[in-house]
Amino acid sequence: MNAEILARFYGVIPAGGVGTRLWPLSRAAAPKFLHDLTGSGSTLIRATYERMIPLTGDRIMVVTGMAHRTAVLAQLPELADEDLVLESEPKDSAAAIGLAAAILHRRNPDLIMGSFAADQVIGPVEVFQDAVREAIATAATGKIVTIGIRPTLPSSGFGYIRTGAKLEVDGAPSARDVVEFVEKPSEDTARGYLASGDYLWNAGMFVAPVSLMLEHLARNEPALHDGLQEIAAAWDTPERDEVKARIWPTLPKTAIDYAVAEPAAAAGDVAVIPGVFNWDDVGDFAAIGRLNPASESTGITVMGDGARVYSDDASGIVVSDTKRVIALIGIQDVVIVDTPDALLVTTKDHAQSVKKAVEHLKASGDIDVL
Amino acid sequence: MNAEILARFYGVIPAGGVGTRLWPLSRAAAPKFLHDLTGSGSTLIRATYERMIPLTGDRIMVVTGMAHRTAVLAQLPELADEDLVLESEPKDSAAAIGLAAAILHRRNPDLIMGSFAADQVIGPVEVFQDAVREAIATAATGKIVTIGIRPTLPSSGFGYIRTGAKLEVDGAPSARDVVEFVEKPSEDTARGYLASGDYLWNAGMFVAPVSLMLEHLARNEPALHDGLQEIAAAWDTPERDEVKARIWPTLPKTAIDYAVAEPAAAAGDVAVIPGVFNWDDVGDFAAIGRLNPASESTGITVMGDGARVYSDDASGIVVSDTKRVIALIGIQDVVIVDTPDALLVTTKDHAQSVKKAVEHLKASGDIDVL
């Protein structure tokens, strides 16, 4: 890819989502992206940022909740003030990614944005970066480009991307047309998708000319588009805070998939690069177990600097956010998450049910621990 | 029984033993007898004390560790200063019960002592008190009398008492001779004991003339006997503390079973009253489950005033010593003990293995949580 095209590239990291299935580790005040869930020494948002630097340099914008300002800046001290977009309330992905597109478009209408969620685990990074380079080259031909993940099992937990004809793009040998995005399927349907070889997991990665993003947004969500343009017009001026405070709360809440990706695919404007890197959205504690091998001597995966774990005839995962001694005796595939104000005890098989517990606690008024 | 005999009766409560299998609830600084393990609202030592009052009035002596002075007095504010025997270090049951016998003997050589551990659960109390009355009547004939528990299962966790011929004692229709005390048997042997009907569980309950206790102690452990007599001679004088501090650390460490009960039985001096009350020594968390029924709606036994437990498809026991939210999901027969500095997660089937964990923690230097 020529340097001129790469110079048009700007990274965007939407950092939202509590990660309810990782409660009580992940919670409103300390969402998933602020944790090191792989034992790498980096939080997920820091790892996401560093994965993009070779492509973007410091041209990276972060969109997150107002409450996370201090924590995000502690993780990303390099971040410029005008590249930190703080939401006064959550407005879903169309508003978050759309505002980034609108601000960048004001700065330079030729920019190509690449939006990658702050809470995914990806490796090897070089393979990921190669896929992004192909996506940039394809986006430069006037496409919204997603990077789809090659499925490894018939998951009913992800949306899928149905791939179409191969595209002829210089610098993007694996680019294909996208026929459609499909919602989370049944497990049976997912088995068919896996067997066909035509489907990829939708990981919410978008690389696209900002102008094309805004064009589709204007067509499908005109009120949202106009509001975002109004904020963007004030962004690099002294009126930024005042205008954002006035407009943001009035914006409609919708997902980028509905507002842009799906209608753009129907219009023939979406391409896909198959991602052959390892990818995990760390959706639950079973994922923590996959990403962090158990100690060979004890059979236990332990996460947490201060953890003091004793085990006898036990296996599973201990995530410790305290300095307490934790003794596990005669219990298998257990998941224990120990935090100062909440304790979760479950099994790997029930990792998905954690969300239900959080909903129950919310309903019963135990919001202090959410 | 005539009032004259009952007037000779004095209660003794040895309050020792950490209750290692109930860690981390029970521990050195807060042993088993200082906990309410039945949800009755009373600690075990308070319940033990109140069970004896109808027989003794306030004539009750407590032998416990120096460290528990404040906690024991908080539980038993009625306790007279001269009836609180504080051990500067643990010296096992022969020294503890023997010192009580020696002090009481100084006060009145005709006294009959009744020694009952501080950490057992007994009911109905009237049935227990009837058994003690029979034991007092039998002791008055010049016997060391134990109250043995009618076995309900072939337990290999208790010592047994082999009963002999029926005795003819006024006021003690169920009194029998004791042939011998036997150590904890194998489960097979225990099955034989249960089938024979000749064996009772040894619950460590002794009712005996203090003079007869001291006589056997002098015969079997003369050094211990002489040391205890020296402390007893100073007990109700200003020299109490000085003499105790000097002598106690030099005393031999042995169990009352070896020092008195077994040799006395061999000499034909021991009788037994079969106890037909319910009895539990609350030896482990499985016992906590037996003694505290699970909630019908959740299947979980919850102990702890501040407990905030959410469960979904789970069963077992939660003992909470914190105000944390505890969420249990998809896990059966679990035992969770949540304290500020230590957490235990095990199953009812592994309740006995908790002791091993404590030994491991001791060996690895984690004594702050023991």
Automatic annotation (TrEMBL), chains A, B:
<dbReference type="InterPro" id="IPR054566">
    <property type="entry name" value="ManC/GMP-like_b-helix"/>
</dbReference>
<keyword id="KW-0808">Transferase</keyword>
<keyword id="KW-0548">Nucleotidyltransferase</keyword>
<dbReference type="InterPro" id="IPR049577">
    <property type="entry name" value="GMPP_N"/>
</dbReference>
<protein>
    <submittedName>
        <fullName>Mannose-1-phosphate guanylyltransferase</fullName>
        <ecNumber>2.7.7.13</ecNumber>
    </submittedName>
</protein>
<dbReference type="GO" id="GO:0004475">
    <property type="term" value="F:mannose-1-phosphate guanylyltransferase (GTP) activity"/>
</dbReference>
<dbReference type="Pfam" id="PF00483">
    <property type="entry name" value="NTP_transferase"/>
</dbReference>
<feature type="domain" description="MannoseP isomerase/GMP-like beta-helix">
    <location>
        <begin position="313"/>
        <end position="361"/>
    </location>
</feature>
<feature type="domain" description="Nucleotidyl transferase">
    <location>
        <begin position="11"/>
        <end position="293"/>
    </location>
</feature>
<dbReference type="GO" id="GO:0009298">
    <property type="term" value="P:GDP-mannose biosynthetic process"/>
</dbReference>
<dbReference type="Pfam" id="PF22640">
    <property type="entry name" value="ManC_GMP_beta-helix"/>
</dbReference>
<dbReference type="InterPro" id="IPR005835">
    <property type="entry name" value="NTP_transferase_dom"/>
</dbReference>
<dbReference type="InterPro" id="IPR051161">
    <property type="entry name" value="Mannose-6P_isomerase_type2"/>
</dbReference>
<dbReference type="InterPro" id="IPR029044">
    <property type="entry name" value="Nucleotide-diphossugar_trans"/>
</dbReference>
